[in-house]
Amino acid sequence: QFIHKKEIFPQKYSVVNMLIKNWNIFRRQINYNNKKGLQMKTRIKELRLEKKLTQQALAEQLGINQTSLSKIECGASTPDALLLADLSRFFHVTTDYILLLSEERLAADSLLADNMCNLKKYQHLITIYQKMTQKQQGYFYNFLCSMLGMSDDL
Question: pLDDT confidence of 25, banded at 50, 70, 90?
C-alpha cells in the first residue's frame, strides 16, 4: 500500500504549506512596496554588502547559484518562501525586514530572548567567580588575560 509523505512527516508539510499559503500575501505586499519605489532587491543587496560578501559567496551559503541571486538583486526574480526564510536566518533579520514590511531588523521577542539567555550565562559565571578565593580569582584573571593576549594590569 502506498503511504503518502504527508502521513510520515506531517509537521514538515504543515510548516511548508503555511509558508506557501502566506507567500501570495507577501507577493502582494512586495508589489505594493515596489509601486512606492521601495525595492526588496535593494534590501537583500544591502544586507549582503554589510557582511562584505560577494554574490557568489552568499549564493554558496544559501545553496543557490550566483545567477539566481543576481536576478533577485536586480529585481528580475523574486525569492520563493523557503529562500526568504533562509535569507532571514542567514542575515539574522525578520522576513518582514527583507520584504520591507518593517524597519525592525529583529523581532522584539527575539532580542529579549537572546538578552535573557546571555544574562543567565553571565550571572552563572559571576556566581562561580564569587565562590573563588581571592588567590583563585587572581589566577583566573591572569589565565583569561593570557588566553586573550591582553595585559594583565588591573
Answer: low
* pLDDT tens per residue, range 133-147: 999 999 998 888 888
What is the residue whose three cell numbers read 539566481? 68
Residue 70: closest CA among 44, 51, 96, 93: 44
Number of H helices, E strands in the chain: 9, 0
Find the largest Cα–Cα distance for the chain. 74
Alpha helices in the chain (DSSP H): 5-8, 10-35, 40-50, 55-62, 66-74, 81-91, 95-98, 108-131, 134-148
pTM higher than 0.90 for the full model?
no
Q: How confident is the model at residue 96, as a pLDDT?
A: 85
Q: Residue 42 gets which letter from DSSP?
A: H
Taking alpha carbons only, the member of 49, 97, 95 closest to residue 73 is: 49
